[in-house]
Amino acid sequence: MTHADHPGPDLPDSADATRPGSPDPVPAHSAGERTHERSADDLVAAARREVAASERSSAAPAGESAGDVIDRYTLLEPIGEGGMGTVWRASQTEPVKREVALKVIKLGMDTREVVVRFEAERQALALMDHPGIAKVIDGGATRNGRPYFVMELVQGSPITDFCREHQLGLRERLELFGKVCEAVQHAHHKGVIHRDLKPSNVLVAMGDSGPQPKVIDFGIAKATSAELTNQTMFTQAGQIIGTPEYMAPEQAGMDGSDIDTRADVYSLGVLMYELLTGTKPFDMRVALQVGYDELMRQIREVPPAKPSTRVSGLSVEEATTAIPRRVNVETLSRRLRGDLDWVVMKAIEKDRARRYDTPTGLADDVARFLAREPVEAAPPSATYRLRKFVQRRKKSVAAVGVIALLFVGGAVGTGYGLVRALDEKRRADILAEEARDAADAESIARREAQQNEERAVAEARRAKVIKDFVVETLGSGSAMSERGSQDKTVLEAMEDALADIETGRFSEDPYSEAELLAIIARVFSDNGRRVEAEPLLVRALGMQRELFPGDSEATATMLSNMGNMLRELGRPAEAESFARESISMQRRGDARGRARAMSLNHLAAARGDQGFREEAATIYREALDQLEADDDLPSEEDAHDPGGRERRRSIEIAVTRHNLAIELMGLERFEEAEALVARALEELRRVSDDDDPRTALFLDTYASTLIARSAFDEAIEHYTASLEMRRRLYEGSHPETALCITNIANLHAMRGRPNDAMGLHVEALAMYREIYPDGHPDVARGLQFVASNHAARGENDEVGPLMEEAVAMYRELLEGPDLRLAHALAFLASQREVTRRFTEGHELRAEALAIYERLPDLDAEVLRDALEKAARSAWMAGRSNYAAERYLDLHEDLAQSGAGGSTALQEAALNVAVNLRDAGRAREALAYLDEALALRADPRFPDAVLDALELDVLSRAGVQDRAAAIVEARLESARATHREGSLRMVGELEDLATALLNLGDARAAEPLLREVAAFYAKRRQPSWAAHVNAARLGAALTDLGQLDEAEELLTAARSGLADSIASKVPPQRLPYYECLEALARLADARGDDAGFEEWRELLATTRPYFDELRPTDR
Amino acid sequence: MTEDPLDPETIVRAADGDDAALGSLLRAVEPQLRASITVQPLWRRDLDVDDVLQVAYLEAFLRIGSLRERTPAAFRAWMRRLVDSNIKDAIRGLERDKRPDARRRVTQGGQGSSARTLIGQLGGPGSSASTALSDREQIERLLAAVARLPASYRQAVEQVDLAERAVADVAAEMGRTPGAVHLLVRRAHDRLRELLA
């Protein structure tokens, strides 16, 4: 292959326009040419000619053809086409005879900006002299005034092809790559950035001293030296230059003014990635399915798999073509793992400050690897990756509308109320603990006895009663034998105890009954049976208040436990009031230390659950201070068992620290959180045994930090260990087990494995449903995850019912504005939009937005995203006024956040203009028009589209002079440019006729509309566009008083439009409503008042936002 | 039928873009391909074996670069697949013509202009940031892509999809069988999907 400027990313490989020329193109067949059974030669030759012709037609500009002479050069054949120009193989006759590559700016692209860039390229290339860079020989202008330049004709293949064809091994590939880095470094020394490095711009030929690469096409180079930057290398604001897969994130950010040499380092990193793995970090095929914006987002935000990981994931078939021959997948993956992984990952860092500063820096590290020396690149720090992770997650979470911070478990309760183990081994511990609790009660009673001896005696007696009862229930052979099992658990014992209480065993001793109920409630609650626990604790608390009016430490503890339980039941506001009451009571009693710390812990968790994370963190710190101050009075038991006291305190400190860490993760203060979790886990392990269920919870939190560091496999290991522990500790369904399963499933889902995730999510949901038969936020969340998997598998119809149930559950259970409901609404809305239920989608989005706006501490990006989606959804539903207002909000928000002049701001302006126009507020739209039209610089918005908008807004707003001038100029230009009866011509005529109608010039519009009508009349079948045109012609004729023909046209058009209106999204239905308006005007013109009212009535009942229109718009 | 041996080197050269090499391979496999094609009597008037082969060859020239395994067996299998899918697509099109599907007719008649219909059939290119304007933009992109098709593909799309003419009329004008036009349209759609991706 010769010097070939590969086409842009929109061309697949097979459309490569670089195949050598062949005889003159002829049509494959002309009419009447058919013969029966032609020879193979005929068929092959015809196919070959046709392919050659189609390639030539796209490669060769209309302006030049083979044989043309440009100055001293004779064009021989087109050999490639790039974004900017066409490259020809050409012969030079003087002063030397040789073949060269000649690049001419292609027709249709010779805007001033391109010419300026081209000029810059010639100067920049002339400065460079390196065997690895194609030399510039000459430059000038063609007779048509288009610039061209002449460069060394490079014989060679794209570097990736070369490596594959020559079966280069890893070392040879790396050595070759080093040479490419040297060449790019040379360019950087001369102040030239390539900005579009990719395999097709690095051609390799076999020379005397082995493979020699040459970098071609500095077509979008940008000078960094002061002399050059003044006039050249200017990239029009916002225009993306480069090939997406090789493009540095800062280029994808579209801030073209701030690209430096490190953008090339990034592209070199991608090139190295491809040379090592045979794949690119980003798969365009996948990315293209999700759209251009999403691809840009991925380039900016999503870290690619490490080369070793990518290679190990290749199928056998892929590996055969992808990787160096003579190496199998396992070997290659092993060789890449470690140093080469880090070298590549450092080169393709999203943050350019973390990349190699120069291509030489990259080449040096490659050389170090080859010399078996340690490389400079090192794994990114954990903190850095954690931050990136959450930044990424936040967006994707907002995008799909699922729950934020999926992997963070709930806060843990503290003190006595913590989860207890239930197996045989733990039974004795539980019993001992219960006994100690009772002993605590005894000691409390003793202290109080100084003031109230009688009460103290009662307390002591009660403590003994409780102790005896617990011992009897748990420990007696009879209790166990009643069930005929030696495996009775504490839960079963509590059920038996409850049955005993309900049969009136303590009817004479309400004090003991209250305390026992509280114990049973706590055990139920800790074992996932919170729904059953709640009424027991309510009953216990009621009895407690009645029996001990006023403050008491026992009441305070019960209040605190009540708060914790309510929080776990998803009712944080209620929980908060109990926690506050408990704390007030403790303050009045001057309680310090552990008891108060426990209440503070529950209060903090309740506040955190309501979104007040900063405040929650402050409260946790206060609790930690209380615990660490260690100034509570030692109990009698403490005196007997000083080690046990220390152990309990250590556990409470660890738990509080863990909870604080979770809150800090929610606040994105990851460094602090990471340190806290690590310390908490260490503290817990030091004082607890292997089966402490809190270890499992802490392991989960730790796993979430591993996920943040992208250490997915390790995270799965930790989750699995935690899950095994839970399955061992808890029987059947348990919230903690379900949460752990959910976390593992989420990890699969996050890694794009919805099928692996689905089974686990379904299992977790079934558990939650069993635990909370009457509904619970966790059930809703489980529904949402199952729905997410369906969505990921494209099963959109399955998503609807699941999310309807989730939303209904959240609505019933959540108090106040809540992020979970907002996300669920947004998710359901997206399902409605995908299934074309636009009005419902809009209403759900609007509700979600209203919630987001009321949430404290909500990230501005999340809010902006919700705003944008609500606006777009409203547009789809035809609620133009609502959409316009939301786009105005977005525009203001972006402007205030300093995004002035950015493409995002211009897009917002465009959407404001479109929606104001559609809402009949074209005059207001005028104010945003110029800003929107600045998008002409953006390649995503073709001029024709923006021209149409400009004229439409101007004409609807009645800006007569400007609109009329545009119509005149465009009509003249269209007649000169487009073929009569071509689709483009018809498009132009439709735009112009509509504008003339808007301007009230029906006379001028009429002939254009008739021309369009003639075009459609030739079609066999009537179409929406044909009906729209007929309606407009009818409207024009109404204005011109030709009422009979107008009526015929409008009536037929209305019927035609009505037939297919169901297939249109509401904004596309505008012409139908305009047809109804025209019918109303026709009736008016005929003096048919009844008809007029009838059409108006129909308009009012069918047009979705008719009510929103102000009288002046109608 | 005995197979002419294929030279593995020639296959590598062909896959690397040597048109002459590919031409010689196609000539070598043609007898066997031709023998493998069976068109049911019902469709013989509407589908010519040559048409199937020629479009298969066109595809071969366009896509040879994507041939992964460059061995004689793989090349033969690949050509066989191209031929088979052409026959299948042609006959599907012909069957649709004979038994028009009411839904499809409604779609064509009601979905707006022909270009919009075609965009719909192609699955639609990625939407722009401003969906409000995507309709017009998509048409522009489509027309640019159509201009880049091989001549017979382009002609088929322009006449059948954009001008909404009957396949039989277009076939007569192009000097092809209706089956050939169906498969040209089908292959052209594949190509357009790639160009618009």
Mean pLDDT across the residues of chain A is 74
Portion of residues within helices of chain B? 55-70%
What is the first-to-last residue Cα distance of chain B? 42 Å
Percent range for β-strand residues of chain B: under 5%
Find the count of extended strands of chain A (DSSP E, 2+ residues): 11
Stretches of chain B where pLDDT is under 50 for at least 5 consecutive residues are 100-113, 124-134
- Average of per-residue pLDDT values of chain B: 76
Q: How many structural domains are formed by the residues of chain B?
A: 2
Structural Rg of chain B: 18 Å
List unreliable stretches of 5+ residues of chain A: 1-36, 56-62, 107-113, 220-242, 380-457, 474-488, 1106-1114
Calculate Rg of chain A over CA atoms.
37 Å
Gross morphology of chain A is flat
Q: In which range does the helix fraction of chain A lie?
A: 55-70%
Please state the overall shape of chain B, judged from the principal axes of the Cα atoms.
globular
**Class of secondary structure makeup of chain A:** mainly alpha
Secondary-structure element sequence of chain B? HHHHHHHHHH
CATH superfamily of the largest domain in chain B: RNA polymerase sigma factor, region 2, helix turn helix motif
Task: Give the percentage of residues in beta strands of chain A.
Answer: 5-15%
InterPro entries (chain A): Kinase-like_dom_sf, Prot_kinase_dom, Protein_kinase_ATP_BS, Ser/Thr_kinase_AS, TPR-like_helical_dom_sf, TPR_rpt
Domain Protein kinase (chain A): 73-370
Enzyme class (chain A): transferase
Biased composition (Basic and acidic residues) (chain A): 31-53
